[in-house]
Every structure is written in C-alpha cells, then in structure tokens.
Amino acid sequence: MTGTTGAADPTGHDPDRIKCVVWDLDGTLWDEIAVETLTDELPVPRPEMLAAIDALAARGVLSSLASRSAPAVLDRMDAVPGLRERFLAPQVSWQDKSESLRRIAKDLGIAVEALVLVDDSPYERAEVEALLPGVRTLDPGEVPTLLAAFEDREVTPESRERVRRYRTEETRRAEGERFQGSREEFLRWCDMRLTIGPAVADEIPRALELAARTHRLNSSGLTPDRLRALAAADGHELYTARMSDRFGEYGIIGAALVDRTAPGSWSVPLLALSCRVAGRGAAAAFLFWLMERARECGAERFRVTLRPTDANLEMRILLRQAGLRRTEADGDADGDGAILARALHGGDGGGDLPKPPAWLHVSTRKDADA
Predict the structure, then answer these.
(1) Which tens digits make up the pLDDT trace of 232-286?
(2) Which of 38, 114, 159, 282 has the most CB atoms lying inside 10 A of its own CB?
(3) What does pTM read for this prediction?
(4) Local structure of residue 83 (DSSP, 8 states)
(5) Could you tell me if 294 and 370 are in contact, meaning their C-beta atoms sit under 8 angstroms apart?
(6) E-assigned strands of 126-206?
(7) How far apart are CA 325 and CA 304, in angstroms?
C-alpha cells in the first residue's frame, strides 16, 4: 500500500479521504482474462468483490473500473444485468493505469488522491504509485481491511444516495455535451435552485460529513468533532444549503458555521461545499447569502477562517473575489490559518455586496433569529 492519508484509522485507511475505489478486471473482479474467453460471455465476477462494491456503495463510496483490456469488454458488460451499473466513469482501454485514474477523477470531479486502486498486478500498482503518489493501491486480498475502515462510520441519507446522484451527474454531463449553446445558457436551462437556512437536527451528520470529506471547496478543514462542539456553543449557528435542478435533487451540498459572539461581526470558522457542485456558482451563492444575511442582522464586518491547502485553491479565489482580505487588525486563526475579512457597509471596502450568478435561483429555507 502507498499514498498519503490524513488521520488514518487502525486499518491504515482514512475513510474521509476515500471517495471512489477503482477496480481492475482480469484477476481482480474475476479470475479469467476476458479477451481470451471463447465466447462473448464475460468471466463470472467474484461474489466477494461484488459484495465489497455493494458494501462500499451503501456507505457512499463510488466504484469505477480501470482495466488494460479491449474497450469491447466494457460493451459486453452492458449485457450483464446489474454489473455495469455498479461502476461510474469506467476506463477500459490499453492506456496506462495512471492515465485511467486521472480520467476517472476528472470525470467524477474529485481529486485523484481520493481514489483507491485495487489491482492484482504488482506492476500496475507500482506504475500508479510512481506517477500518482497520492493514490493508495491494494492487492485484492487487502480489500477486507478497506471494508473494515468503514464499519463504524455513520451513514447519512446523502451517503446512501451518493452513487445514484453521481449517476444523475453523468446524465447532466451528457446533456451538457449535447447542449447547443454557451455554458451559461446550459446552466440557466438546468433551472438550478439553492435553498439555504439554519440546520435542523437531522442535517448535522451531513454537515459533519462535508467538513471531513470536502477538500476542494473547504475554507478551513475544521474537524467534525470541533465543528460539532462549536455548533452547540452559545452564539454559534450552523447553516446548510440544498440544491436541485431539472435532473433531480443534489441533497445537502453545503455547510457553514457562523460565530456571532463578537459584537458587530459575523465570523465563519468553516465554509464547506461538495465538489459535485464545483463550477456551478453554488459556493459563491452560499457565501454571498451569508454576507447579505449578516448585514441584515446588523453586522458591520464579515470574517472567514482560511487554511490554505493544495486542494482548496478554488475556495481561496472565491474569498478574494468576494472582497475578503487579510488584515493585521483581524489577526490570525489558530495554527496555520488566517482570518480574511471585509466590511459589509459603505466605506472601508464595504459598499455593494456581490450577487449570486444569474442562472442560480437562491432562496431562504427558514429565517434564522436576528
């Protein structure tokens, strides 16, 4: 095994970082070599591998394929009921495994480091380890340790629905490729709707999950335990954002913790959004809604905790575009973070607040107490 992880569990895996397991075919998903079969029938998949794929899906972990084989093998999988539909963004070709993994990550909109490769070939694992050092690789015999890492993880409604929602995302992407018009026109046609409001009790597990699992659109990397403690503290409020479009529900895609303990100021120790909504304006709309809400509640200043990472460049750009800047007066966050701030009224960089993208309908789900 290789690759970097966060605070790993005793099995050696960090469940919060694993979003998709990529499976080899020959010698891994099944015993035989598919292109060497005498008929068009595929080898019979190993029951324990299918069971592992289904167990991971129940916990919100996606599965994909990366096999150095003839592309026709993937077409033959369509004829096997229930098999092809288990895998998202599959790559079956003669290209290198590392390139297949890059394409899978791009198609799914996740970091390549969020992938795990299961492959019986030491050569293929070594090739991926050399070119994608952030990816963990496993021999098929190590799959039970991977499953064990997820045994005690809380399963949220969103995690149970994640595979289905990524399938819906494949439909969105296909429609976008066929759409005759600009990107903005397509987003308008999608009729995207974002509803934001204070979190209710059954939304808190999903907010904790977002804090742990999102990296690309995460301002501070606040741990779930710290988020839970702060959300329960006096003067703090937890907000969530839900999104839908003409294709269906995204579910809860954003969480923000607001600290209102300082007079005249709203501070946001955490702003986190699912990578599934990257590039659609949801992160900007959520941030701008919070700023507008803060001003409505009488706040003079708006602050966000930022801990820069290799993954959250998109969030850093968004905060800057929203007029948030680091100043000596606002000090630093604990550890290696910084406080970015801006005024909410005229003067001192205040003035008009930015508006959400025109293609996104934003509404308040339930007003918070002023």
Answers:
(1) 999 999 999 999 999 999 999 999 999 999 999 999 999 999 988 988 999 999 9
(2) 282
(3) 0.76
(4) T
(5) no
(6) 136-138, 192-198
(7) 9
